[in-house]
Structure formats: structure tokens, C-alpha cells
Design a protein that fits this description.
- The protein is of the alpha+beta class and 388 residues long.
- The chain has two domains: 234 residues, no CATH class; 136 residues, Protein Transport Mog1p, Chain A (3-Layer(aba) Sandwich), CATH 3.40.1000.
- It has 14 helices and 14 strands.
- The strands form three sheets. The chain has a nine-stranded antiparallel sheet, sandwiched between helices. The protein has a three-stranded antiparallel sheet with strand order 3-4-5. A two-stranded antiparallel sheet has the order 1-2.
- Strand 1 and strand 2 form a beta hairpin.
- The N and C termini lie far apart (54 Å).
Length: 388
């Protein structure tokens, strides 16, 4: 009996080679294939999408990073967390971008077909994923720009796979990749925020089990698992947001939710923020003597659906020393973040409501209970109703 993983399937190598060298010949073959999304995910997307994160993990530990006269090597835990999250969110991105590509196709005189849209994104990303290998040597990461060849792959596949006419393919490709660029920035932001806040320990990507033809459970030992049906729910939600069927709650409505006073603290200022379909937010400043805190209510519409995936994977962190503590994770089914500095008497407390609204209180006060009380002053039931 052989031990360890077997060799990369010849079909994977052959397809990747064909996509790079002769995409115009390969796309018509792909268009008529009957494999399910789960098959494509297991046999093609997962091994190729893992190249960049794994190469980056190894490169960061062997070579480190440098700029001018400064060089540094991140901790193994930080690099591992970055790799795991990048890989997981890349898989999420494939489903979301496929939903966008499917929705856009009829608008450019093409045909809507969810399975074919998944093929277009999965195989069209070949160059970008192969270019991830340059992350093995951080100084060569600039060659990752060769991954832009995926633009051409997507363009050549739009006709055979989504029936987009020649005259519309450039526009279809550009619009879809603009959506991909926004998606990439969101993924990078999420990874950066979590890596900065969480020292997550995990063993690696684990088993993938199929519950049905197009349903796969992705497991990460020591972290948790998430079913691709949840990912597709997020994709469908993204599609509704793009169509305008789901809109961010107006700042005028959120302002009404902020209280004038909180346990002896009086509101001294108010700010609002609107980011189009990405979301909205309001922030109040509260003071009482030499104590002060800010209370924020944010409609994170663009990320709604993804927070639930993070919770399902069981991401959690708890640290404590003589200077304070930090706790991040899911408590009673609700995502919470709690930080407190005993030396500075300051901290932050935040919760996610209805997998969409983030309520946070942060500042310099006598105890964390003040911040918890401020968050509790927000009517969570009303926010949950607004999320419907």
C-alpha cells in the first residue's frame, strides 16, 4: 500500500497545459463536458488554487520579506493563518464570481448557465493560479502579474461556454474582471484583518466530502468545516445585491437606532458613511467626565453571507496576560470580538447581527462592561428585521 498523496492527475496537468497553450481549442471541449461543479472543484480548482497559498507559506518562512534596508520573517502561525484563509476565501470567490459571470452573461447577449459560468471561472483562472507559484520566492512575486493571462483565457471562453457574441466579449470580460478586482480586495481585507487579530492554530486543509452532486464539505483540521451550499448562498446573495434586490439600510434609519444617552454617557457627536452597494454606517461619540467611547452601527452589506462562513469554520482566538486580554469567536451562535487593556483602561467590544450588521463600542472607560452595555443598548431585534 502506498503512503502519502499520489501524483497530480495527468488530466489536471494536461488541461492546465492546454488552457495555457491552446485555449481556443480547449474551451469547446469544456463547454460540452458534463462534470458537476463538485467534480471541477475537487479535481481542478482545489489543487491549483492551493499553489499560491502554499508557495507563499514556504517562501515567507524560508526567505522572509524585505524592503530597502528592512527585512522580516513572519511567525509560522501568521504565515499559516494567511495561507489557510487565502485558500478558503479563494474558493468562496470562485462561487461568488461564477454567480456574477452567470448574471452578467444575458446582459451581453449571452446565455445564463450556472454550471458553465462555474467552468468559465474555474478554468479561466488557470494562469492566475499557476502564477501563484512565484510566491515561493517573495522577490519574484512581481512575476505573478503573468497571471493576467487569465483575462485572455476568460475572454476566449466567454463565447464557447456562455455564448457571448464576439462583439460583446471584451466588454463582458472587463465588467466581470472589475467585479473580480473588487472581490479580490475584499478577500485581501478580510485576510489582513483576521491575520492581524487572530493567532489561529491549524493543521492544514483536510478532507473534502460530497453530500450531493454539487455539494462539498471543506474541512480544515483544528478549525472547522463549511459546506459549499453555504458558499453558494453567499453567491446568490451577492447576485441579488448586484441586481439591487437587496440594498443597504439608509444612514437616516441607522441614525435613529443610535441612542442619545447610554448609562450616563451623552452623545457629543455623530458621523455617517455611505459606500454605495457596499454598505452604510453611523458612528456616535459619547462622553462622561474623562471617559469616552464611540458606538458604531455598520451595515456590511457587501460582506453579508461571508461572516456566517467564518463562524461556521469555527475561527476563534483567546489571549490573556498581565496587560489585558483578547477574545474572538462565536458565542451562543453570535460572532463576537472583545479586547481590553488593563494598563490603559481601554478596549473594544463588537458583535455581528443577522450576519450583516456589525455593532461596536470602543474607547477609554472604567471597564469592558461599559462597552458591552453600549452595544446592548442597540436594538438587535430591529436590526435583524432590517436584514430581512
Amino acid at each position: 500500500m502506498s503512503e502519502g498523496p499520489g501524483p497530480i492527475p495527468a488530466t489536471l496537468i494536461g488541461r492546465a497545459k492546454a488552457m495555457i497553450l491552446k485555449p481556443n481549442e480547449e474551451w469547446p471541449k469544456i463547454a460540452v463536458e458534463t462534470g458537476s461543479k463538485a467534480d471541477i472543484l475537487r479535481s481542478y480548482v482545489v489543487p491549483l488554487a492551493a499553489l499560491g497559498p502554499v508557495a507563499g507559506l514556504i517562501g515567507s518562512q524560508v526567505f522572509g520579506y524585505g524592503a530597502l534596508f528592512v527585512s522580516w520573517r513572519p511567525s509560522i502561525m501568521s504565515s499559516l493563518v494567511t495561507a489557510l484563509l487565502s485558500f478558503g476565501l479563494t474558493l468562496v470567490g470562485v462561487f461568488v464570481l461564477a454567480a456574477i459571470a452567470d448574471w452578467l452573461a444575458p446582459k451581453f447577449e449571452g446565455q445564463s448557465n450556472k454550471t458553465n459560468a462555474f467552468k468559465l471561472v474555474a478554468y479561466g483562472g488557470t494562469a492566475a493560479w499557476l502564477a501563484g507559484i512565484f510566491s515561493l520566492v517573495p522577490m519574484l512575486a512581481v512575476f505573478g502579474l503573468l497571471g493576467l493571462y487569465s483575462l485572455y483565457l476568460f475572454y476566449t471562453g466567454a463565447g464557447p461556454v456562455m455564448a457571448v457574441p464576439e462583439a460583446k466579449r471584451i466588454a463582458y470580460t472587463v465588467v466581470t474582471f472589475l467585479a473580480a478586482a473588487v472581490l479580490y480586495l475584499i478577500v485581501a481585507l478580510i485576510v489582513g484583518m483576521i491575520v492581524a487579530a487572530v493567532g489561529l492554530g491549524a493543521a492544514g486543509i483536510g478532507a473534502m466530502t460530497g453530500a450531493s452532486e454539487d455539494e462539498v464539505t471543506i474541512s480544515i483540521p483544528g478549525v472547522g468545516s463549511v459546506n459549499t451550499s453555504k458558499i453558494e448562498e453567499a453567491a446568490q446573495r451577492a447576485e441579488k445585491i448586484q441586481k439591487g434586490e437587496i440594498k443597504p439600510v439608509g444612514t437616516d434609519v441607522l441614525k435613529e437606532i443610535l441612542p442619545e444617552t447610554v448609562s450616563g454617557f451623552t452623545r457629543s457627536g455623530l458621523e455617517t458613511m455611505a459606500l454605495g452597494v457596499a454598505g452604510t454606517g453611523v458612528e456616535g461619540q459619547y462622553k462622561s467626565g474623562d471617559q469616552q467611547f464611540t458606538l458604531k452601527v455598520q451595515d456590511m452589506l457587501a460582506l453579508s453571507g461571508l461572516a456566517g462562513i467564518g463562524s461556521a469554520m469555527g475561527i476563534a482566538q483567546e489571549k490573556e496576560d498581565e496587560n489585558g486580554y483578547e477574545r474572538i469567536g462565536t458565542v451562543d451562535g453570535q460572532w463576537r470580538e472583545e479586547r481590553w487593556s488593563t494598563s490603559g483602561n481601554n478596549g473594544a467590544y463588537a458583535v455581528m447581527i443577522a450576519d450583516r450588521f456589525r455593532v461596536e463600542a470602543s474607547g477609554t472607560v472604567n471597564s469592558i462592561e461599559v462597552l458591552k452595555g453600549a452595544v446592548a443598548s442597540i436594538d438587535q431585534g430591529k436590526l435583524a428585521d432590517l436584514a430581512e
